[in-house]
# Entry
Amino acid sequence: MTSTAPLQDSGSPNLSPDASHAAAAGQDHAEHGDFRLFGLATFLVADGMTFAGFFAAYLTFRAVNPLQEGSTYELELLLPTINTVVLIISSFTFHRAGKECRGGNLGASRLWLAITGALGAIFLAGQMVEYFSLPFSLTDNLFASTFYALTGFHGLHVTLGVICIAIVALQTRRGGRISASDHFGLEAAELYWHFVDGIWVVLYGILYLL
Amino acid sequence: MPIRTALAVLAATTALVLTGLWVGNNVNMLPLDASSNAPTYDALFKVLFSIGTMLFLGIVILLVYSMFRFRRRAGDFSDGLAIEGNLPLEIVWTAIPAVVVLFVGIYSYDIYERMGGMVALNDHSAMDHMAMDHSVQQAQAPGRVWGGIGAAGMDAAPSGPVLPVEVTAMQFAFIFHYPDAQITSGELHVPTGQQVELHMEARDVIHAFWVPQFRLKQDVIPGQPTVLSFTATKAGTYPIVCAELCGPYHGGMRSNVVVHEPEAYDAWLQQNSPIRTTT
Amino acid sequence: MTLANPSDFNGSLQPQGWLRYFSFSLDHKVIGLQYLVCGFLFYLVGGALAGAIRTELATPLSDFMPRDTYNEVLTLHGTVMIFLWIVPVVNGAFGNYLIPFYVGARDMAFPRLNAVAFWLIPPAGILLISSYFIAGAAAQSGWTAYPPLSLTTPAAGQVVWILSVLLLGGSSIFGGINFIATILKLRRPGLKLMQLPMYCWAMLGTSILVVLSTPVLAGTLILLSFDIIAHTGFFNPSLGGNVVVYQHLFWFYSHPAVYIMVLPAFGLVSEILPVHARKPLFGYTTMVYSIMAIVFLGLIVWAHHMFTSGTPPWMRLFFTIATSFIAVPTGIKFFNWLATLWGGKIALNSAMLFSCAFIVNFVFGGITGVALAQVPFDIHVHDTYFVVGHFHYIVYGGTVFVIFSSLYHWYPKFTGRLLNEDLGRLHFLLTFIGFNLCFAPQHWLGLNGMPRRVAEYDPTFTTLNQVSSVGALLMAISTIPLLINVVVTALNGKPAGDNPWNALTPEWLTSSPPPVENWIGEAPLVTEPYGYGQHHGQPQEVKA
# Structure
């Protein structure tokens, strides 16, 4: 152990959980490097399995259950395709933001983050437009329900991502938590954002193209 | 390995195998076998029971022997032998379960095929006659049938006409309808020696149709018309049990299957069919 | 390393008082014991529910409680025992306590996440049980919650059940992430993966299963709650939905869940046997590979729970073969354990008795398991008492026996005091006899026509059901010597010293109970946790 900051009893009132957390996870095991991203990646694997379950359910419904008579389930392609492009571009802009941050250029990083966040918001707006223009609603039929469940669950992820981007962008300001040397928050948000984009590409393929 | 040890191991293994075979063949754990595939099932059970007895007794005897033979004597604080592994030995006991499992798997596949389990019931052409006036099927693709045990491949499948019976499972009863004789009954009546084809559907929740004496069980799932075939071989009255939790009265969801000799079955038909009585 | 005199630091660094066990503590040892005690309390609740079931089944008629109450009781019994007792204790309690020691760390990788994971459990458990009193009715559709039944039983109870299982699933996932990160990333420098104690491998495999399969259950239950609350039709056939899809998704988690409950037990036994047999663990490398084989196979066998659900023939064939082959890696582990005992100096104490009984019970359950994997066999006994007998041999005869064994083995580590051996052996005897009396007859009942989850049955089954109920009563009684033992020992037990078993695994190379940071000074590098009989076990001088 290079530093032996004592891991104090968290039950003692004078110690904030933050401090003891940092002592245990960060500095005390500095020689192990930072494994918080590893933890996040593991969590994203778990999250991905939730989507995998939904996809498997949808594909089985498609293969086995016919659309009930008299119900409609049709999707337009144009809007979701634009949305897909928007989301893919946002992955690149986020990557750029990360690069600028690591290069010490926090201002540029903040700009690229803002662009990414805006693209995310555009995606969400597009999703809303699609929801309101579709000829079916949540409980109309099995496929309508599955469509809303899948896109809704993904939309929730995008919303969370946009919020994270906003927080990270604020933290890149002077005196914030993110600097060129310490930028875990930004990297975590970036990993998460790429994950959400990747899921969308799969979802787009299965839900719209198949 | 010294020759005496080898002989002792050989003797013990032989004794174990013989015990297993004896137990498998002489200890009866199953109810009466009253359908044509029940003896097939029982043959598989005997094999599994024999192998299981051998493995279980072998491991337990080894364990108990070790516990006594190698127990720590009072005052002895030394360690055992520093043996960390033995690759040939480990290969042997990887191979033993692998061979046993492979044998059991192939054998049970054979049994399953003889029981009619491998018939593709979703094959529309084979099951076209199923599609007739089935109200529930309109919700499904036409002719789509789900099921467990089919007719073809059944051991000693009797020739002659198939007896179709429509089964409706609901909370908390089975209703049996004979489309040819126009009989609706709470009990299932079938003749010996004739193949019966149950066309099953569920009204509300999942039920399961189980006749222990036939060694047959099939879930009846709402929205999935299901077929189950069997041929009863021994006259008698056997329980029909619902085997899938279906609500508060699940335990009370029981009925009977009455297996008649063919003549007695005809008499029952005569007595109960509205078609015959009007003539 | 040299062992310091415990009294040097016991007083100064150890947090004082019982309050810390009710706090949001970040110390992995405190969290481990929180899991243990909390899990044990829920075990008593689940046991009381089991007692109610066995009382109802002592007579053929449904005369002890109303029928819908009976279904609530069996649903709660299954859910409590799985999600609040076995999974939290065999993973959370022993995992949190031991894994940091085994990897040479001072805490888990994410201590705060760890505390969050634990503190999700008590509210989830209380929520689940309170649904019986507050929501008007608890869930009545079994722990499997198969639709359409779960869509037609009282909605409030079912929704509370879903919410509670989601919270517990979240806790499980957080725990799994933490274990994976701790084992892979937090190892002491110089410690190689293939030098880790076997429990680390078991927990790594378990955590992989948790991370891959639990989210699928969570997603499925969210869809099920939509069906109940928003009247969508995912699993509702009358709205065009598909019931079997639910079963596939449910069992994609719930079969691996069996390994989530059993693999850690395999790991714990692999720690306990070498210590009390004074021999190295036999076949370390094959043990590691067989755990990973079980993890892989465990993920591709789920549909063997659905052989009567109208699954297509090819699917039944595939799942029969895959399931059967789990017997191979499992068999390797059992033969390796027997070889570990062979030629040892076996101390037949309570810990060892429970571990040896685990081998007997689990082999029995494993053999009936291979039989159940065969489609034609399964068609007859599916959803009968044969299955009830089988899985209780796995989860109770297997895992719960190991939990008790572990309690006797590590109690001196937790408290510095040895549990009383006479009471321990009495506890063992009552548990072993009661358990076998309770569950062995159920196999015969299932083969001969008694379905599971029934409140009433054919009177010809009365005798064996009463035998089973007597066994359950013995099991209930068996907790009394255990409770007395724990309380009496805590108050006035025999001091254990730091390493009462002369064990070589790292958790014993510090004081008992350990200091807050696990070691004074640097963590020891233990490259041979099973080096018995090789004359380099340092702690020899402590006792002998």
